[in-house]
Write a structure and sequence with these properties.
The protein has 164 residues and is an alpha/beta fold. It has helices at residues 13-23, 39-49, 62-69, 78-87, 103-109, 127-135, 151-163; strands at residues 27-32, 54-60, 93-97, 113-117, 139-143. It is 42% helix and 17% strand.
Length: 164
């Protein structure tokens, strides 16, 4: 399969989800910026995928990453980020969404399991995202982060090395 075939347009997500539901497979969903893919991302995505049958990644668009992370981000375009994610064996599908919060994406995806990284807790998770997942009887799981592995840490390291 070509990785580009694993990229699902937001408007096509309900039909894709219905096919997954009809197949009886358990859908795990996560979301994020995934700007510079690193070992922390890969470990997280593999662990998320192992919680179910399929892993759908909601990817923040370029404009939403800028809103969340500031000017200069993302480093990679949304299309490039989506293709890299889709190329991972553990990722079943990728959908780009333009909102800063994943509420609309989650409404369309209706995950059986919604996974977030350990920088979140159930209490700090966006209330509307949590309510959508719970509305469709989904389970929320927080996975631990890989210490010291983040895009921000990677960018800081690159800036320090560039100064040498």
């Amino acid at each position: 399969m070509n990785s580009r075939e694993k990229i699902i347009q937001l408007q096509d997500l309900p039909d894709w989800r219905e096919k997954v539901r009809a197949s009886g497979k358990k859908l795990v969903v996560t979301n994020g910026c995934f700007d510079l893919l690193h070992v922390g991302h890969v470990s997280y995505l593999e662990a998320a995928r192992n919680l179910g049958d399929l892993l759908l990644v909601g990817l923040n668009s370029d404009s939403s990453v800028r809103s969340l992370k500031g000017e200069g981000r993302p480093v990679n375009t949304e299309v490039d980020r989506a293709i890299v994610l889709a190329a991972l064996e553990c990722v079943s599908a990728v959908t780009i969404f333009s909102d800063t919060r994943a509420v609309r994406f989650l409404e369309l995806a209706r995950p059986d399991i919604y996974v977030k990284g350990g920088d979140y807790t159930i209490e700090t998770l966006d209330k509307n995202e949590r309510e959508i997942v719970e509305k469709y009887n989904g389970k929320i799981i927080i996975l631990p982060v890989v210490p010291g592995k983040s895009t921000t840490a990677l960018l800081n390291k690159m800036m320090q090395q560039a100064k040498l």
